[in-house]
Write a structure and sequence with these properties.
This protein has 18 helices and eight strands. By secondary structure, it is α/β, with parallel strands linked by helices. Helix 4 links the parallel strand 1 and strand 2.
């Protein structure tokens, strides 16, 4: 009741302010000017009443218009979740447009799976219930469609106020002056970042002048999701703190021999190449000038040979099984395979899709590498539109998402482990903490203790083209059009050419 009363009083004040500041002077100026002319004319015909009625009627009409805006706004805020009429997309859009004249309306965009979409929609409703004068409109899509839409919005100047970003695109959008620098808000305390979390801002969230364009939404690590029931049935043991890719291949073969269960293609896409394997040969994916990969074709070749060999021997599905796959309808989720490459923060969604218990191994180590490839990184970050009409409100929302216990009880570890140590403690020690949350926290802690060098990443121009090029080369290899050795050479040569041209 208090929140409703607060909302009512706030809207009455806004209506009054709008009318006093804009409505009354404008309408009186327009209609009184016309009224004077009309009065002079009417004096000759002694029809004064019509003139005065016209002025009063015009002003009253505008007053009714403002009251209508007020009523629509209140109806939208109080009834948006209580009446089926207001769930209709067309009705909601009309009320949102009207409500935008009286309320602070922001747009919040992200990509994600069904679990993330449900959780994020819930926290939006929570925030609006705590801030009745603020409306937040959600915009969410699958990963590829999300970035296609953002590219279009960036071109026409209609980006959302708050956006979920990844490391590969933060630098690109910041360089185009599309993202708001957050340093002043951090310094003022409007955006609270614990001192221990400042090192979670990787190179990709800063420019060369130290300006911060993204707040880490959670820390995670790349790993291998696996079905512990299958592993237990096989009797095979794994020490994932020291295992190599040769060990990995032997585990896949042994488990298949005992259970008949296949493994996923490990190199089904660019993920393990760009975010794990390359780390065996350096601290970052690219050279400092961003003109080439750090690893050579000879270094990449053993990984491709291993994965191709496993597929040829029938120990993984064929490449056709992954073409156009949708998460939840993939071999691992359907129980056709027992392990696959995934990020730690995706464990909750993976369990939801698979409907069975899933654990995480750390990624193997390349025996021809020079260092341990394991590392912790920011899963994604929160960024704010540089041209938002409500920067303070957008920052306040991001601050709430990052630091509110109530919010993070809903989000859990789905976007990664919180950068706020108090939130981490609250989630990990909660009596009702789920096993998934405990597993994610435990895995991230384990990888943090194993990593040899801190993660460094700067996304070069042309990174999307490089990703497409890698996936095209892998498809040619899996279809038998080129050998793994040729694929490795083609991947590195083509990627280096793209990087040299774009940077």
């Amino acid at each position: 009741m208090n929140k409703w009363l607060f909302s009512l009083l706030g809207h009455i004040y806004k209506c009054y302010s709008i009318y006093e500041k804009f409505g009354s002077p404008i309408f009186r100026l327009i209609f009184l000017k016309n009224h004077r002319k009309r009065r002079e004319r009417n004096e000759k015909t002694d029809q004064r009443r019509f003139g005065f009625f016209h002025v009063d009627f015009s002003i009253r009409l505008f007053q009714c218009y403002v009251i209508l805006l007020f009523v629509c706004s209140i109806v939208h805020i109080q009834c948006r979740d209580k009446c089926i009429l207001f769930q209709h997309t067309g009705v909601r859009r009309i009320l949102i447009c009207v409500n935008g004249l009286l309320c602070n309306t922001s747009r919040f965009a992200w990509w994600g799976n069904d679990v993330r979409n449900t959780q994020t929609s819930e926290i939006i409703e929570m925030y609006m219930s705590e801030h009745p004068n603020i409306t937040i409109e959600p915009e969410f899509l699958q990963f590829d469609a999300y970035w296609e839409k953002l590219a279009t919005q960036a071109a026409v100047g209609t980006l959302a106020d708050v956006m979920q970003f990844n490391e590969a695109r933060t630098q690109e959008y910041a360089a185009r002056d599309l993202l708001l620098p957050l340093n002043d808000y951090i310094d003022s305390g409007a955006l609270y970042v614990h001192e221990s979390a400042m090192n979670t801002f990787g190179d990709y969230t800063r420019d060369d002048n130290g300006l911060i364009y993204g707040i880490n939404a959670g820390s995670n690590a790349l790993g291998i999701h696996y079905d512990p029931a299958v592993l237990e049935e096989s009797g095979v043991t794994v020490d994932d703190t020291t295992w190599t890719y040769e060990d990995y291949e032997q585990v896949v073969r042994d488990v298949y021999a005992k259970t008949g269960k296949k493994a996923d293609l490990l190199v089904n896409g660019e993920t393990i190449i760009m975010y794990s394997y390359v780390r065996n040969f350096g601290t970052q994916t690219y050279t400092d000038d961003m003109k080439s990969f750090l690893m050579t074709a000879e270094q990449l070749q053993p990984l491709l040979e291993m994965d191709y060999r496993l597929m040829q021997d029938g120990l993984t599905p064929t490449y056709d099984s992954y073409v156009g796959e949708v998460w939840g309808d993939d071999p691992f989720s359907k129980g056709e395979t027992w392990l696959r490459i995934h990020w730690s923060n995706e464990l909750e969604a993976a369990v939801g899709y698979a409907g069975r218990d899933i654990k995480i191994f750390s990624c193997p180590i390349a025996s021809n590498g020079s260092q341990n490839p394991l590392y912790i990184r920011g899963s994604m970050n929160w960024a704010i539109n540089a041209n938002t009409a409500s920067p303070d409100e957008s920052v306040a929302f991001v601050n709430w998402v990052v630091n509110s216990e109530e919010c993070n009880q809903v989000l859990g570890s789905e976007r990664g482990v919180s950068i706020n140590p108090d939130i981490r403690t609250m989630l990990s020690e909660a009596e009702d903490a789920t096993q998934i949350t405990k597993d994610v926290f435990s895995f991230v802690d384990k990888v943090s203790g194993l990593q040899s060098v801190s993660y460094k990443f700067r996304s070069p121009n042309g990174s999307d083209e490089v990703t497409t090029h890698i996936n095209d080369c892998l498809a040619e290899m899996y279809y038998g059009m080129i050998t793994p050795a040729q694929a490795a050479e083609k991947i590195i040569d083509g990627a280096n050419k793209i990087l040299a041209e774009k940077n």
